């Protein structure tokens, strides 16, 4: 039995984690003493987050199973029972790290003496010389924005845990992220309130250079907040796919951030992208630790909590960092999966409780799962299905009378299996990672090269990042 | 079967709640349109919070039982199984209400146009005339403080739910509130950082009028944060007592706040006490709804989540409102219960898993529970116990050899039963409410009348409320 299946760390693991955590603590101690390089501190915190999450997931496994937080892995020959909702562990570690990071990001640059009760009588402002270009401390007024992001993440974690525990119906649970987004939108409203968007050049003669969306900007933000977590939750069901896709998106977002930080001049959006990095680095830390345990063959399940949490991290950085359109460009596979699922989501085609690929015990491979038609579909739906079949976007099976008796479930995972044939679970997950990376690189290319065609300025210059 | 035992609302309840919620919504709609009376909005929100919590607790009961969140009420003849952890429902409603309240409390008084990415190029400040004295909108710079309070509460709710689910050992769980307090302390550090305390007059010749506690001020705040939630969790175990004591403390804190708001001049601590009211009013709303279901005979249990949550609400208002000493004066029964428990907590006297009063099925009354001494106590402990017995602070039983064979468990509930004799569960809970009220009124008297003797100024005037 390998060390990974027991609930204690092997000697090698223990030492690796201790060395990692120790090195990161050393970096942290220096970064708080010195001139202040919050980005370095953030990297160190991410290392600690990785080590803590890795250990906690291992130790808490049996505790979770005892508490009834467990599930059967149906895509394994023996249907082993493994701990569920481990995303909650990730999320809690992540939140604590982001909280501990506050003093590193927000240096106390206003020393205030008060007469008590919070009314500041004497305010002494201390102006610090900016130490570096990209590694400078964060503007203090962004504290509320940072805290609102944290609040939204905590909200979604609480509601996600509730969902994992209480098994809420999907019609209700699609709205959970909307509740999670409320703190962010509220603080955006009282503290920031920018609702202008840059108008693409072709439309400028009609509506001007800027358009104030007003209330609809909030509707747009709420829609993004509902979409991202749910779309990650939708592209799920095989070992490692939830965490792996989230990691790819996070890394690509970080690449995007880096593009703003390595410009020769100090880019006006530097702060937004530092903000984004501070949220993404620890996310990569905790998610990698989870992936070690969730990759095929899984030792733990991540739970809806993780999908909501990961999606909300992206929403927070996208909205508070003002690059939600760029964010959506990294969600191309999720958007496709959502659009492709619509016929089943809205019950035009029967939707079974689970649509994940079917495990074939003899070969050990996954095959596309199907919906059986007890009564044949209406002519309209039948035609549509046959069209999909002809374009290889679904697979249908007919009986002797030419009536459709079953059709493949409309998810990107099943589609991939139709295209590529049955494959093992980890190869399917790897394929999804490859698709996510390809689509994401294409998205960034669109963002940084093609957007010039419709937007007035270089998108890495002054005006392109308001929305 | 009365309506209250089923899981749906009776017609009378439905209509009452709808009328209440409707009226409150009406008030809210007006208060956002008009000049802005956040205190009125807060009261309206509390009404809504009551209605929502009341309904949710009723509806979610069977869902919680199905999810395994249930417990047996051992102090009833038939040991009925009822839903557990209902405090989590309270807490979630409370948090959402406090989030929705943000725009009401923090009016957008800075309209900023940005060039995107969050850097404000043009800042237009709009100065509003203050509409009322006590009902004025909240200073905008307090937003971070409000958000940090919310973060701490969310933290403790997440950890509390974890505790209720995973059954953490008490040695570990006493530290849960410390983690919950971290966001508040972090933001206090970067945003506020006042660590001066007013020195009592008799000591002023030696240390001056103010003393900067520096790091120790944070230790003090963390200690308060650990004490309050745990002490409420300690005075628990009979129907209704957790919620009832929390309600008494909340109402007395609100009385204290009112004393600052009704002064003829505008008190400098007005903001702190408005802040406190904004946190306490919805707390009273959700807790009252819970008490309806948790009072004898209980339909639901509150769970550790509620105790932590309630304690942390008090910590947040006490620390961020700068009246943590006053807060502790309202915790006299809890402080007594804690000190009285120390011998058992530190295992000088054996400590059984549960120390709650024992239910006597024939009479239906509660009696003081006891610890049995398998081996007689050491002479020192025996002497101490006999002293306690003589002063009627415990009850011991001896065998023929004069050795102690059992002693009562050292909790305030058992002590009350020793003093007053066996009584029904609700009478015991009512007694505790009476004790809490008496001690609290005494505490407020000490605060507002006796503190003048050792503090330099009228405590309701300029300097008395820094700590």
TrEMBL record, chains A, B:
GO terms for molecular function: transferase activity. The keyword DNA-binding does not apply. It catalyses: a di-trans,poly-cis-dolichyl phosphate + UDP-N-acetyl-alpha-D-glucosamine = an N-acetyl-alpha-D-glucosaminyl-diphospho-di-trans,poly-cis-dolichol + UMP. It is found in: Endoplasmic reticulum membrane. It holds the Pfam family Glycos_transf_4. CDD domains: GT_GPT_euk. The chain crosses the membrane at residues 39-60, 81-106, 143-162, 174-195, 215-236, 243-262, 274-293, 305-323, 428-455. It is a multi-pass membrane protein. Its cofactor is Mg(2+). InterPro entries: Glycosyl_transferase_4, GPT. It is an enzyme of class 2 (transferase). Its EC number is 2.7.8.15. Keywords: Endoplasmic reticulum, Glycosyltransferase, Magnesium, Membrane, Metal-binding, Transferase, Transmembrane, Transmembrane helix. The keyword DNA-binding does not apply. Pathway: Protein modification; protein glycosylation. UDP-N-acetylglucosamine--dolichyl-phosphate N-acetylglucosaminephosphotransferase that operates in the biosynthetic pathway of dolichol-linked oligosaccharides, the glycan precursors employed in protein asparagine (N)-glycosylation. The assembly of dolichol-linked oligosaccharides begins on the cytosolic side of the endoplasmic reticulum membrane and finishes in its lumen. The sequential addition of sugars to dolichol pyrophosphate produces dolichol-linked oligosaccharides containing fourteen sugars, including two GlcNAcs, nine mannoses and three glucoses. Belongs to the glycosyltransferase 4 family. This is UDP-N-acetylglucosamine--dolichyl-phosphate N-acetylglucosaminephosphotransferase. It comes from Aspergillus cavernicola. The lineage of its organism: Eukaryota, Fungi, Dikarya, Ascomycota, Pezizomycotina.
